[in-house]
Amino acid sequence: MSETRRSVGEPQPSARIEHEWGAARVVIAAVLTGIACLLGGKLGVALKLQSEAVSVLWPPNALLLAALLLSPVRTWGFLLLAVLPPHLAVELKGGVPLSMALCWYVSNCLEALIGAAIFRAWVARHGEMHSVRAFGVFMLGATFFATFVSTFADAGFVTLLGWRGGTFWHVWQERFFSNMLATQTIVPAVMATATTDWRSARKAPFVRYLEAGVLSGLLLTILVATFTSQSESWYSSPAMLYTPLPLLLWAALRFGRTGVNVGLLVLTMLAVFGVVHDRGPFIGGDPQHESALSVQAFLLLVAVPLQLLAKVIGERDRAEEKAYDRQRLLALTLKAARVGVWDMDLLTNQTSIDEQLAAMFDLPAWERRDVSSWMMRMHPVDLAESEASMQEALAADAPRDESGDSLIGEAVCRVLHRDISWHWILSRGVVLRRPDGVPYRAMGIGIDVTESRRTAEAMRENEEQLELAAATADLGFWTLDVGTGEMWFSEHCAALLGVSNGATPARREIDLLLGRSSTADERGKDEDLSAAPPVLAHEFSITREGGEERWLATTARRVRDESANSERLIGVVRDITERRKQDEEVEERQQALAHLARVATMGELSTTIVHELGQPVGAVTLNAETARLLIERNRAWVGGDASRFAVLQELIEDIVRDSRRAETVIGQLRRLMRREQRDREPVNIAIVVSEVLDLVRAELRKHDIGVEWEVSGEGLDVVVNRPQIHQVLLNIILNARDAMESVPPGARRLRVTLRREPFEEVVHVLIADSGMGIAADRLDEVFEPFVTSKAHGVGLGLAISRTIMADHGGDLRAESGEGGGAVLHLTLPVMSKVRAPNGVLADVSIRPNRPVSAGRTETDAGAAP
C-alpha cells in the first residue's frame, strides 16, 4: 500500500451514494447545489470573452452533474428544481431573455442528466467508481457523449430564438468545448474531494503536510507566473506551458486522484483567466476565439493523461493493499492450520522455509537455509522417497497440470527432533516450469500431522480394545435402517439369535430385537418406532434347536444422520441366561430369608413356650421323685406283694427319666435362643455392600430401579458385625425403594459409592436415590424413633441403624442429593483404627472372600437394572 493511500485514505464505496437520505439532508443538498450553481454561473460570466456570448468555461453544468453523481437518484428532481432560481438570476442579470434562459436551463439539465444516468448505470452494474474503466466510462459518457448531445439542443435553442445571431455550428463549437472542459476538470475534482476519507488525512505525519504545502506553493507560483503575466514578459513564453507538468506528476504520484484533480482545476482556472484577460502564453496575433480553443484543447490534453495516470496509480495501490491483506490472511491461515511453506530456487539451489516449517523440523535459525541440515533430520527411508518424488517431478516427461507445472507426489516423512522424538510431516509441492518446459522453481507446504497420526493410532488401539472387550463380554452388534427396514447383524449377534451367518434377518428377529409382537404390521411398527424413546432396552427369550431356552438382553439407541436424512437404530445383544439363573437363585434366597424371618418370629414365641413348659415339666419330675421316695419308705409298713411294688417303682422311674430328658431339651432351647453378642470380624466393606446388593437385586429390578455403585480409593477394610451391617444396609436400600415409588420407572436410580479419601482414617458409604428427597429441616428428624412417612411403617429402622453405626464407632446421617433425592451417608473407621476391648489398637488381618478393587462399577457388582 502506497503512502498516498495511507495518508489520504481510501475512497468511500459506491454503495454509500445510494443509502437513505433524510428530508433535512435533501434540503441541505439542494441549497448547497443552488449556491454552487449560482457562484459557478457568476464565475462563468466572469470568464466570458468580450467578443463571444459563450463563456470559455461554464461551471454550473459540471457542478450540477457532480451533485447528481453524489446524491441518490430519488433526490435528483429536487436538485434540478434547486438550480432553476440561481440559473435565472445569473442569466437574467446578464441581459438574457427569459425564454432563452429557460431553454438554456433545459439543455443544461439535459447534459447533467445524461452524464449522471450513464455513469450511475455503469456503477450500479459493476460496483466501482474510481477504477480506470470507470474513468473511461465517465470521460466517454459524461464528458463527451452527454455534452455532445446536449450541445445540439443548446445551439438549436439559440438558433431558433435568434439571440445575438451566429451560425448553428459556431454556437455548437463554442458551447461543446466549454462544457466539455468544465465537465472534465470540475467534476473529478469535486468527486475526489467529496469521496476522500479526510479523517485518515488528519492522522498523516507532519512531513506529509509539509510536502503538500511545498507542492501547492510551487504549483501556484508557477501557474500564476505563467498564465497571468503580460504577453511581452518572458514568463508568458510557450515554453512555460511545460513547467507545471512535473508538479502535476508529483501530485499524481504522491497524492493520487485528489491531488492531481485539484491541481488541474487550479491550472484550468488560471489558464482561462489569462485568456479572458489577454495574458499568458496563449495570447498572440490570433483572435480571442482561437486563443480560447487553444487553451481548451491544451487543458483537455493535459487533464486526461494525468487523470488516467492517477487512476492507474490508485488501482495499483488498491491491488497492493489487497495483495497485502491476502498475504496477511494467508499467513494467519497457515499459522492457524499449522502449515509451513518451503521454496527452492532450482537455478541457485537456494532454499528458504518459514518459521512454521522450521519449528516442525526443529531447526535453529542458522540451519534454516541449508537444505542438507533439515533433510538430515528426516528418516532415511522417507528422505529417499522424497528425493525420488522430486526427481520424478523434475523429469522432462513428468505429468503437467493445466498451468504446465508438475506436481510433487504427496508424502509423509518422519522427522527427528532434538529431544529424540519422531514427528510426522505431510509434504505437498509443485515444480514451476517456464513456457519452454524448463523447471526453475519448486515450492510446497508441510503440515504437522503428528497429533492426527497419534490420534489415529490411539483410535485404532481403542477399536482393537473394543473388539477384544466385546468378544470377552460376549456381545453382538446390530443396526436397523428405519427408512428401508434393512438390518445388519454381527457374526456373534447372529449366533446368539440362532441365525445362520450371512442369512438375511427375518421378521421374527427384527420383532425380538425391537420388543414387538410378530402380529404387528409394518405400518404399525413404524408408528411405534417414531414414538419410541431415544434409548430402547428389553429382555427376551429364544428357543434354540434342541429345545434349549436362552435369555438375551438388547439395548439400542436412535441415531439420525442429518446429512443423509436417514434414521437408524444401533444396538448390542448379550446373553443373560446365567444372570437370569442367578437372579432366580437370589430370589429363592430372598424367599428363604423371608422364611427365616418368620422362623425368627416363631423363635420369639418359642421362648415363651419353653418357659411355660419348663415349670410343669419340673413339677412332674419333682412329684415323681417324691412318690418314689414315699414308696421306698413305706413299702414295709404297707405290706403286700413285693412284685406289685417293683412294677410301680419302674413306672415312677420312667416318669422321672422322661421328665429329666424333657428338662434337658428345654434347657438347650433356652440357651440356643438366649441373645448373645456375636464377635466382630475384619472384612472389606465393598464385600458387605456387594452381598447386600446381591440380596436385593431382584427386588430392585421388580421396581425398575437401576443400580450404580463405585469403589474408589484403597484400604477399605473395617471390623464389623456383618449381620448388623447387613441389617443397616438392607433397611436403607429398602427405604430408598419405597421413596422412589412416585418416580417414573425410567428415572429410578440407586447409586452406592464407597470411597476413602487420602490420609483419612474412615471409610465412606453413600447410598443415593432419585426419589422425592428429604426436606432440609427433617434431615435429623428421620432418625428419631417412631418417625416415619410410610402409611404402615413403624419408624424404628433408621433409629436402630444409627445406633448400630454408633456402636461400631461410625456415623449415619442424611443429606440432600445434588440432583434431587436423598443421600444416606455412612462412615466406619478403617481396620487399623479399631480398638480392642482392652483399649489397644487391634492388630487384625483380613482375607476377603473375593478381591474388590477401586473403580468398580455396577457391571462388576452385578446389580445392573
Report on this model:
The structure is a single chain. The model is unreliable at 1-18, 520-527, 671-677 and 835-865 (pLDDT under 50). The strands form four sheets. This protein has a five-stranded antiparallel β-sheet with strand order 2-1-5-4-3. A five-stranded antiparallel β-sheet has the order 7-6-10-9-8, sandwiched between helices. A five-stranded mixed β-sheet has the order 12-14-15-17-16. The protein contains 25 helices and 17 strands. With 865 residues, the protein is an alpha+beta fold. Helices cover 55% and strands 15% of the residues. Helix 2 (23-46) packs across helix 4 (76-82). The two termini are 71 Å apart.
Task: For the structure shown, list the relevant keywords.
865 residues, 25 helices, disordered N terminus
Outline the low-pLDDT stretches: 1-18, 520-527, 671-677, 835-865
Q: What would the principal axes of the Cα set say about the shape?
A: elongated
Q: What is the number of helices?
A: 25
Radius of gyration over C-alpha positions, nearest whole angstrom: 55 Å
**How many β-strands, per DSSP?**
17
CA distance, first residue to last residue = 71 Å
Strand order of the largest sheet: 2-1-5-4-3
Structural class by helix and strand composition: alpha+beta
User: What percent of residues adopt helix (DSSP H or I)?
Assistant: 40-55%
Query: Which strand-content bin applies to the residues?
Result: 15-25%
Mind sketching the topology for me?
Elements: H1 3-8, H2 23-46, H3 59-69, H4 76-82, H5 84-93, H6 98-126, H7 132-161, H8 168-195, H9 198-202, H10 206-227, H11 244-276, H12 288-336, E1 339-345, E2 350-353, H13 355-360, H14 371-375, H15 380-394, E3 406-416, E4 422-433, E5 439-448, H16 450-472, E6 475-481, E7 487-489, H17 491-497, H18 507-514, H19 522-531, E8 535-543, E9 549-561, E10 566-575, H20 577-638, H21 642-672, E11 681-684, H22 685-702, E12 706-712, E13 717-720, H23 722-739, E14 749-755, E15 762-769, H24 797-807, E16 811-816, E17 822-829, H25 858-861
Parallel strand pairs: 12-14
Antiparallel strand pairs: 1-2, 1-5, 3-4, 4-5, 6-7, 6-10, 8-9, 9-10, 11-13, 14-15, 15-17, 16-17
Helix pairs in contact: 2-3, 2-4, 2-5, 3-6, 3-8, 5-6, 6-7, 7-8, 8-11, 8-12, 10-11, 11-12, 20-21, 20-22, 22-23, 23-24
